[in-house]
C-alpha cells in the first residue's frame, strides 16, 4: 500500500453515502491515508459523528447533508470541496439503495426510487465532478485518469473486504442482535399489534435495531444464509402454523391477525414456504 498512500495523500475526495457501510469505511480509510474527504449523505448526525472520528485520528474532512436525488445537493457537495480545499480530485458516487422484492409484487414506487438514487444520483455526481476535476482539466497525461480509477477500485476492494470480514470477527455481538430481532418479531406478531400495524417490514426491523436495512440483510445472509425478509417470513410461518394447529380461528381471521390485508396473500405466502395450503396444513392435525 506504500505507493497507494503516496498517491492518495492530499487528494480531495468527495464520497456520497458516507454515513454508513462501504461509504463510511471508504471515507475513514482514505482519511487515514491522508486524503481530504468531503462527506455527503442525508443523515446529519452520522456525518457529524464520522467527521469527529476522522478528526480524532488527525484526518481532514468536511460534510454536507446531501440527498443524491437532488442535483443541487450533489453540486453543492462538489462546491463545498472547492471552497474548503480549492479543488476536487475524485468523487465516489457510492450512495445507493436496494429494495429487494419479487417482481410480481409490483413495487413500482421502489423501482422508481432505485432509478432516482442509483442511476440519476450517480449521473448527477459524474456531472458535478467532471465540471471541476483538476486532473482531467490539466490533462497531465493520457493515463492519469486510469491510474486514479484503478487506485479507487483497489480501495473499494479493501473496504469491501473489511466490511465482509466484520461479520465473522463480531459474530458474538451479531448473534445477540439476531436474538433481539427475533424477540421483536415475536412481540410484533402479537395479534393486537399486527392488526393495527400490518406486516412488519425490513425497514421497520432494521430501524428497531438501529442499523441500515442493507447492512442487516448482509449480516443475516453472512451468518444464516437468509435475508431479513426471509427471517420475517420464517417467523410469520411459525406463528401461522401455531395458530392453525392450536386455535379455532378461521384462516381469514388468522391472516388478518398476522397483519395481512387480504387472506389470499397469506394463502400464497404460506404455500410458497411450506408447499401446502393453510387448509391442508390444518387438516393434517385432524
Ligand atoms: N454491501 C454490499 O454487499 C453491496 C453490494 C452491491 C452493491 N452495493 C452498493 O454499494 C453502495 C453502498 O452499500 P452499503 O452496503 O454500504 O449500503 P448502506 O450501508 O445502506 O449505505 C448506503 C449509503 O447511501 C446513502 N443513501 C441512501 N439513499 C440516499 C439518497 N437518496 N441520497 C443520499 N444518500 C443516500 C445512505 O445514507 P443516508 O441514509 O444517511 O442518506 C448510506 O450512507 C450502495 O450503492 C449499494 O447499493 C453494496
Automatic annotation (TrEMBL):
One of its GO terms (molecular function) is sequence-specific DNA binding. The keyword rRNA processing does not apply. Residues 179-284 form the HTH araC/xylS-type domain. GO terms for biological process: siderophore biosynthetic process. Keywords: Oxidoreductase, Transcription, Transcription regulation. It comes from the Bacteria. The keyword Transcription applies. Belongs to the short-chain dehydrogenases/reductases (SDR) family. This is Transcriptional regulator, AraC family. It comes from Arcticibacter svalbardensis MN12-7. The lineage of its organism: Bacteria, Pseudomonadati, Bacteroidota, Sphingobacteriia, Sphingobacteriales.
Amino acid at each position: 500500500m506504500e505507493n497507494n498512500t503516496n498517491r492518495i495523500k492530499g487528494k480531495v475526495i468527495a464520497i456520497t453515502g458516507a454515513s454508513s457501510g462501504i461509504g463510511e469505511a471508504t471515507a475513514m480509510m482514505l482519511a487515514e491515508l491522508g486524503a481530504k474527504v468531503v462527506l455527503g449523505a442525508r443523515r446529519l448526525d452520522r456525518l457529524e459523528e464520522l467527521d469527529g472520528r476522522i478528526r480524532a485520528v488527525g484526518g481532514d474532512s468536511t460534510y454536507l447533508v446531501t440527498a443524491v436525488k437532488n442535483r443541487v445537493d450533489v453540486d453543492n457537495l462538489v462546491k463545498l470541496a472547492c471552497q474548503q480545499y480549492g479543488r476536487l480530485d475524485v468523487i465516489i458516487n457510492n450512495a445507493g439503495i436496494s429494495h429487494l422484492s419479487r417482481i410480481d409484487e409490483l413495487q413500482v414506487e421502489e423501482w422508481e426510487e432505485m432509478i432516482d438514487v442509483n442511476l440519476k444520483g450517480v449521473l448527477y455526481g459524474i456531472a458535478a465532478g467532471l465540471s471541476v476535476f483538476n486532473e482531467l482539466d490539466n490533462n497531465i497525461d493520457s493515463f492519469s485518469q486510469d491510474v486514479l480509477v484503478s487506485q479507487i477500485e483497489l480501495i473499494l476492494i479493501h473496504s469491501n473486504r473489511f466490511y465482509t470480514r466484520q461479520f465473522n470477527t463480531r459474530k458474538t455481538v451479531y448473534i445477540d442482535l439476531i436474538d433481539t430481532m427475533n424477540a421483536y418479531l415475536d412481540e410484533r406478531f402479537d395479534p393486537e399489534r399486527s392488526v393495527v400495524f400490518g406486516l412488519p417490514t425490513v425497514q421497520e426491523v432494521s430501524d428497531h435495531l438501529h442499523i441500515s436495512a442493507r447492512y442487516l440483510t448482509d449480516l443475516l445472509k453472512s451468518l444464516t444464509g437468509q435475508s431479513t425478509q426471509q427471517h420475517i417470513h420464517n417467523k410469520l410461518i411459525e406463528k401461522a402454523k401455531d395458530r392453525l394447529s392450536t386455535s379455532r380461528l378461521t384462516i381469514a381471521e388468522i391472516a388478518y391477525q398476522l397483519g395481512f390485508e387480504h387472506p389470499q396473500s397469506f394463502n400464497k405466502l404460506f404455500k410458497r414456504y411450506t408447499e401446502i395450503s393453510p387448509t391442508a396444513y390444518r387438516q393434517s392435525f385432524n
